[in-house]
Amino acid sequence: MTTREGSLEAPTRHPIDWKNPEYYDEAKIVAEAERIFEICHGCRRCVSLCNTFPLLFDKIDGTSDGELAEVPQEAYWDVVDQCYLCDLCYMVKCPYVPPHPWNVDFPHLMLRAKAFQFKEGRMKHPVRDRMLSSTDRNGKLATIPVVVQAVNAAARSPALRSVGEKVAGVAKDAWVPGFTTRKFRSHAPKSRDFPVRDGERTPGKVAIFATCYVNYNEPGIGHDLVRILEHNEIPYVLAEKENCCGMPKLEQGDLDAVERLMRGNIGQLAPLARAGYAIVTPVPSCTLMFKQELPLMFPENEDLIAVRDAMFDPFEYLMARRRDGLLKTEFAKPLGKVAYHVPCHTRVQKIGLRTKEALEAVPGTEVTTIERCSGHAGTWGVKKEFHETALRIGRPVVRQVADAAPDYFASDCMLAGHHLDEGLVRAGGRGHAELHHPITLFRIAYGLPE
After folding, report:
1. In Å, how far are 46, 52, 280, 412 from 90, measured between CA atoms?
2. Can you list the positions of beta strands (E) in 109-251?
3. Which CATH class is domain 331-446?
4. Does domain 184-321 have CATH number 3.90.1200?
5. Which residue, 159, 55, 60, 53, is CA-closest to 107?
6. Phi, psi of 247 (to 5 degrees)
7. d(C-alpha 394, C-alpha 372), whole Å
8. Has residue 169 got a pLDDT over 50?
9. Which sequence spans correspond to the domains of the chain?
10. pLDDT band of 429, cuts 50, 70, 90
């Protein structure tokens, strides 16, 4: 072990060796957990990020000598349950990530442990977790005419939500998304035949990977993205026959399902990438999945690497387009005061504050930027056993939004946005502020109709 304190080199990521049988060896997982937990115990820089590290340190500090050696190994799995793979400890806090010789990758240790639990059938709530992570299936079933009204009514019924908490383990007070009767992919207009204008930094045509959430839950985000592209005369297509990106399954450790979803998507997306499209995804977790997690799981897949290199966050694309001199910068409406929350899965993409840059480009707009986890964390924050913890993690963000007294508050992740809205209501209300996706705010600023 080196005595060097930290690392000034850019962090690097090793491929995920999940096809190797040793990846699922419990003894090796526990040994690696001991090694990394010991390093974390001596550092503690990540204690404010989530509940994973406070729980680990409480278990260590609760022993007679305050050392990891006295913590029973079965308690390690409680630590694993608290991690929702936000990746912030790796990307913004830990000084010991590769290429540092200590080689600490806490999120991928947690992923390995979750994959072991899944493969060995040790999930505590397997039916609930499989249901929550099956976003394609849920969306296809819930958006059937007549069924959609029943599903949405059940989500608003306190009595049925109480039953759901007891039977399915979904917190009765947690915000859950409603389902649309008009799926985005079924109702998105075809692009007009604009000429393709490539820039130095940007392809001049876009392929939209709609995501389960935009397709089944909030199609307005997709329609607003389309209006912005149309306004800027950027031709677009929708990726055909897309599946879930796989992030919900990754969070459960179901890596075989991740592979199945990847193979379904890559056949649609790779030809678009090779045809020169920028692939734009309006949900940060989906973008990150293609930019980082899938390439680490399948590093030899050339189609996937082509997709990774063509993948853009919406505002990463739009602001690069602006630097190319190919984005319209005349805005019709100021946005006033905006409290903007940067989701974890946007921060770890290493693209900078592109959404903030876009909103601040609108005259008459003041942006308060909040870089801290909302606590929602995909499916984790709606689970009965974690929901109150998720709200507690988000309280500092809620306070900052309330202190800003904004006209709008926004997050690139609408799950995070609605979770923060729940926190604001619990804290006494949001005032006059309206929650919108930043894409919607940009559409409003342009003066484009809904």
Report:
1. 9, 13, 25, 21
2. 206-208, 236-238
3. alpha beta
4. no
5. 53
6. -60, -45
7. 8
8. yes
9. 21-119, 126-168, 184-321, 331-446
10. confident
231 exposed, middle or buried (CB, 10 Å; 0-12, 13-18, 19+)? Answer: middle
Q: What is the pLDDT of residues 63-86, one digit of tens each?
A: 999 999 999 999 999 999 999 999
CA 141 – CA 180 distance, rounded (Å):
11
Residue with tokens 């920028």: 278
Taking the C-alpha atoms of residue 110 and residue 102, their distance in angstroms, rounded to an integer, is: 17
Helix axes 314-323, 438-446, angle to 10 degrees: 40
Q: Is-contact 282 225, C-beta < 8 A?
A: yes
Q: Are 178 and 217 in contact (CB under 8 A)?
A: yes
Answer for the pair 364, 328: CB distance below 8 angstroms, yes or no. Answer: no
What b/e string do you get for 166-195 counting C-beta neighbours within 10 Å, with b at 16 or more?
Answer: eeebbbbebbbbebbeebbbeebeebeeee
CA distance 358 to 349: 17
Q: Which residues contact 64 (CB under 8 A, 6 or more apart)?
A: 70
Name the phi and psi angles at 364, rounded to 5.
75, 30
Per-residue burial over 141-150, b = 16 or more CB atoms within 10 Å of its CB, e = otherwise: ebbeeeebee
Tokens of 398: 């809620």
For residue range 180-202, list pLDDT tens digits in order: 888 999 899 999 999 999 999 99
CA 224 to chain centroid, in Å, comes to 20
Give 376: exposed, middle or buried? Use CB within 10 Å, 0-12, 13-18, 19+: buried
Q: Do domains 184-321 and 331-446 have the same CATH topology?
A: yes
pLDDT given at position 3: 52
- Tell me, what's the pLDDT at 330? 96
The pLDDT, as a whole number, for residue 49 is 87
Provide the pLDDT confidence category of residue 166 given band limits of 50, 70 and 90. confident
Residue with tokens 């409003």: 444
As a whole number of angstroms, the distance between CA 210 and CA 370 comes to: 26
**pLDDT given at position 155:** 80
Chain-wide mean pLDDT for the chain?
91
- Sign of dihedral through CA atoms 439, 350, 387, 46? negative
Longest dimension (CA), the chain: 72
> What pLDDT is attached to residue 235?
98
Residue 1 pLDDT:
45
Distance of alpha carbon 81 from alpha carbon 78, whole angstroms = 5
Q: Which residues contact 424 (CB under 8 A, 6 or more apart)?
A: 398, 401, 402, 430, 433
